[in-house]
What does this fold into?
Amino acid sequence: MKATIMAAAAAASLAVSAASWSLDESRWYSGPKLTAADLADKVVFVDMWGVNCPPCRALLPQMQKYWTSFKNKNFVLIGSHCQGRKEAEVAELVKENGLTYPIYDWAGLAEGAPKNPTGGLPFMYVVNHRGKVVYAGQSHQAAITAAQEAMLMVGQPPSLTGMMDFDKKSPYRGIDKQLVLGKNISSVLKRLEGDVKKANAKSATPAQKAAAEEAAKILAAVGEGREEVIKEIEQKKDTNPEEALKYMKLFMKTFPKEGAAYKAQIPEMTAKVKEWKAAEKAAAQQKK
It folds into this structure.
């Protein structure tokens, strides 16, 4: 078993609602002006580029295509210029390429941003809607693939196995489809715990010891996933009570002991969802 972290992606785990973004208005060039609130629950693609970088300039039309295709799908593209303040040069390239996405000087994560190992441009990274860096590198194709995969996860509960991948020969191949929030996973956990215990026997075979090591990693991932769900529920109680309520109910099915505390909160959260929906509807009507 191996953890798949795409192309040097950093192990940042900042939640989007609490992430620190560098979006100083004084460094804005063009496109929509952004605030941290605009990035909440969005997949953010940060393209670090410069006017003196030929490969960067060559990519600008492709970046515009990405923005045009995905801007209405929980996606934000930020062009982060990294070669000094150059108003005229950037403005010329914006006009020449018809760029409409947000462009700033040195915009992106203020904390937890991945390191550029070579220092060369272009360099890009993708932050999922939970504030985790899921790609960092110099391939725009790999970056947009990571962004598309992340967009599919918006609105979905956190994974209980994280970013783990399983070898074809793994005895646990496909177990991630069983360890899903909302399912009763007690029998799966018992199997994993039993396999871990088998390795302690004097007669344990190398295969059993290897399986035990893998089972222990899966159990650890489930534990981390459980904490991620709890954290997300607490964050969404104010920002998106509808999702918070949905995750609470799913959590209670998967982790009945830990989820027992949520039972008493269901009526209050149900009322809060109704109020939140009414406020959202009123706000939408005011915009018309």
